[in-house]
Amino acid sequence: MFSEVYSEGAILKDQQLEGKSCSLMGMKVLQKATRGRTAGLFSLIDTMWPPAMPLKAPGRGQAHEEVETRVPPPSFCYILSAHPSVGQIDVIEEDRISKLYQPPVTRCLREILQSDDHSTRCSFYARVIYQRSQLNDLLLLQQREIWLMVTDVSLQMQDENNSGLPKTVPVCVAPSCVLSQEVVEALAEATPHSFLFRDTLRAQGQIVCVERSVLLLQKPLVGMASSAPSCELTSPVKLNELDSVTQVNSVCSVQGTVVGVDESTAFSWPTCDLCGNERLEQSPGDRGAFSCGDCSRVVISPLPRRHLQVFLDCPSRPQCTVRVKLSQASVSSLLRFAACEDGSYEAQSVLGKEVGLLNCFVRSVTTHPASCVGLEEIELLTAGRASSRHC
């Protein structure tokens, strides 16, 4: 019989209960959950079935292994609640792991993607190479998804003539997935971190961290096999080049020739040359100077930032409109020799220029009425560097 216990506040921290035999006091039954109504809960229970110890046949004193094969997974589960005043969970045997405990089985991403197991839970180690959502905004809104682009050695070490598996995988962290403060702080640093993605749900071609999924900074777990795959990468991360199977909310590399500029969305704005503040105010009486509220100083030589989207002719996607929002570095490189005497730029001056390889996030993919891909150039998380900002 399985039960899930809801408690108010943390009874014990840092998985101190995991794998331990415990006694429960002051519990009450909230409901009897069934497989049809709470599929997410039972997808987790299925990872712990069959039990590690042989089941006993009713009326017999000895355990019979043949009985275990005939017992189907449970079809119901009790949802328990710890009473705020008398609810208590105590470890029965300190520093011992229960014989019933089954630690999560981690697999490499390549094995997970090649398996036919869908609508099931999976655990894996992976390196986060790009984080789409700004975590500070997420903490304020509390209802947004976080998209993490991850990879491991098994995907990065593929041969060029391999089975067509991607070199990176998008992982969606749903609002229902509760993140620890340690994980929140690690993601807010915008530096590369390796995580254990535990009990994630693989469904409809996506890997999603949902309720009951756990994210942990890469550390050995109690009971975790020492042969668990590592996601430590010894060489720069490689991305798949943009092609006909590239999906939205993924990352890819792209190169091509500039065949057009979206002049309707092109604009520039001044930033502080000291702190980078983008909210400068015009100094009274001096149209050529700005004041920076963050530095409390007059900015005489502001640094310009530019928003520029170009259309590329890409050999990897012929007869497809490829629209790329360029990063500041790429804009500066593209416009370096295209400035007019008055400081303006002519769109014709950048046509025919070669760009790439660019690392990009796939914002949109459409096939009707015409084939079009919308990309945004990004900066991957590498040691000592933060991810690029985006609107």
UniProtKB/TrEMBL annotation:
InterPro entries: DNA_repair-scaffolding (IPR053054), DUF4503 (IPR028032). GO terms for biological process: double-strand break repair via homologous recombination; regulation of establishment of protein localization to chromosome. Coiled coil: none annotated. It comes from the Eukaryota. Residues 1-380 form the DUF4503 domain. Transmembrane segments: none annotated. Pfam families: DUF4503. One of its GO terms (cellular component) is nucleoplasm. This is DUF4503 domain-containing protein. It comes from Panthera tigris altaica (Siberian tiger). The lineage of its organism: Eukaryota, Metazoa, Chordata, Craniata, Vertebrata.
